[in-house]
Specification:
With 199 residues, the chain is α+β, with helices and mostly antiparallel strands. The protein has two domains: 78 residues, 3-Layer(aba) Sandwich (Glutaredoxin), CATH 3.40.30; 99 residues, Up-down Bundle (Glutathione S-transferase Yfyf (Class Pi), Chain A, domain 2), CATH 1.20.1050.10. It is built from nine helices and four strands. Helix 1 links the parallel strand 1 and strand 2. Helix 1 packs parallel to helix 3 and helix 4 packs parallel to helix 6. It is globular. The model has no long low-confidence stretch (mean pLDDT 93).
């Protein structure tokens, strides 16, 4: 099994962190955008969207980060990262769709905006707060693919700037998940900015 990834983005980091956290027997290949690797004919066979992450497992060529998470959790049930009963699975799917349909677009719009209204994310954070306010350590109660999917966005540079004052349980959860082995091992240290020459 081979995961094509580019750690620095949330959708890639969530998949890579999941593999590393559970020590899954999945090889990891970091693509080269400089060499336009995702535009190559060989890669387009794997993902016609020309994006990462993408997972190859024999004849299966799987793209979309949350599909990769749920596939890995299904293939490796020892992770206990995906409920197998219909209601539990529906709950997990609900939060994965919430991340991709609501949280990700809202954060993307905020990132692109010239005037950053960080409070625009507060209603979404409050929904997550309601889920965590009953003393859960993780979104579904136990650590799951949902935590990897959502935390990957809230531990970004932009995610750290959001106002969590009304959402203390979300803040505690975010810090808890960020401390997981997989996220620690996928933390990218950016090189320092070059010093400005004295004028």
């Amino acid at each position: 099994m081979l995961l094509y990834t580019f750690t620095i983005t949330p959708n890639n980091r969530k998949a890579e962190a999941f593999v590393k956290h559970f020590d899954l027997p999945v090889d990891i290949h970091h693509v080269s955008f400089k060499d336009r690797e995702t535009q190559s004919p060989e890669f387009l066979v794997i993902n016609p969207m020309a994006k990462v992450p993408a997972l190859v497992d024999d004849e299966l060529k799987l793209w979309e980060s949350n599909a990769i998470l749920t596939y890995l959790a299904t293939v490796f049930p020892q992770t206990h990262a995906l409920p197998m009963d219909p209601k539990g699975r529906a709950d997990a799917d609900r939060w994965l769709h919430w991340q991709s349909c609501h949280l990700m677009p809202a954060m993307g719009a905020l990132k692109q905006s010239d005037e950053k209204d960080l409070d625009s994310l507060t209603p979404l954070l409050k929904i997550l707060e309601g889920q965590l306010a009953d003393g859960r350590d993780y979104i579904l109660g136990e650590l799951s693919v949902v935590d990897f999917a959502i935390a990957a966005y809230l531990i970004t540079k932009l995610g750290r700037k959001l106002d969590y004052s009304a959402c203390p349980h979300v803040l505690a959860w975010r810090d808890r998940v960020e401390g997981l082995k997989g996220f620690v091992e996928t933390q990218v240290k950016m090189p320092p900015a070059p010093a400005q020459a004295a004028g």
